[in-house]
Amino acid sequence: MSGLAPSFRELKDEADIAAALEEGRRLFAGPCDFIFGAQKLGQLPPQTLPEIAFAGRSNVGKSSLVNALTGRKTLARASSEPGRTKQLNFFDLAHRLMLVDMPGYGYARAAKSVKEDWQDMMFDYLRGRPVLRRVVVLCDARIEIKSHDREVMSLLDRAAVSFQVVLTKCDTVKPAQLAAKRAEMEAEIRSHPAALPFLSVTSSQTGEGIEALRAELAEFALPKAE
C-alpha cells in the first residue's frame, strides 16, 4: 500500500537496515514483564497493546526463542513436562508491544479432549483479538513437518490471521539437511493463504536470525513515548 514504510525485509539501504536492527535491539532490551496467564477466553487482559503470539509444538524451543529475543534466561520458562502449559501467557514489552506465549500443541500423551479444548480456545482467541498483529509459528529444523503443524497453519488460514514461520534449532543440523528443510517448509508456506511468503531461520543458542526477527517484530510496536 502506498505511503506505508517498507518492512524490514524490503529494506535495501545498509543504513536503513542497521537502523531497523538497532530499533529492534532497543525494544527487546527494554523492560519485559509477565502480566497475566489466561486459561479461559473470559480471562484475557484488556487489549491495550499490539500483540504478537508465539505458537509451536511442545519442545519446539518456543520458550528459548522468547528468552533469546528478550535477552533473558527465564522470562518464558520451559516446562520439564511437554504439553504442560495450558494457558496464554502475556508479557508486556516496554509498554509498546505484548508478547503472547501460546500453549504448546501436538503432545502425543495429551488426552483427545485436551487437544480439542486447545484448538477451540486458540481459534476463538485468534479470530476475536483485533490487536493481534501476527502469529509466529515455530517449527523444529531437525524433524519433518508434522500433521499438527499443518493443522495449526490451516486454523490460522481459517481465522484469517497472518502468520510467520520460524525454524528453530538450526545450529543442530548440517547445511544440506537445513537446505532441504527450508525447501520443504517454503513449499508448505506457499499452500497457506495466511502465511507470509518468507521463512526465518534461527538458533537460540548461537543467536542466528534473532536480530532480524527482533527488527521484524518491532515494526508492530507502538511508537516510543517522548
From TrEMBL:
Q: Which Pfam families match?
A: MMR_HSR1
InterPro entries per the record?
G_ENGB_dom (IPR030393), GTP-bd (IPR006073), GTP-bd_ribosome_bio_YsxC (IPR019987), P-loop_NTPase (IPR027417)
**EngB-type G domain spans which residues?**
48-223
Top-rank lineage group of the source organism = Bacteria
* Keyword Transit peptide appears in the UniProt entry: no
Q: Name one GO biological process term.
A: division septum assembly
Q: Per its Swiss-Prot or TrEMBL entry, what cofactor is needed? A: Mg(2+)
Q: Which UniProt keywords apply?
A: Cell cycle, Cell division, GTP-binding, Magnesium, Metal-binding, Nucleotide-binding, Septation
Reply yes or no: does the keyword Magnesium apply.
yes
Gene3D superfamilies the UniProt entry points to: P-loop containing nucleotide triphosphate hydrolases (3.40.50.300)
Say which family it is in: Belongs to the TRAFAC class TrmE-Era-EngA-EngB-Septin-like GTPase superfamily. EngB GTPase family.
Name the record gives this protein: Probable GTP-binding protein EngB
Q: What gene is behind this protein?
A: engB
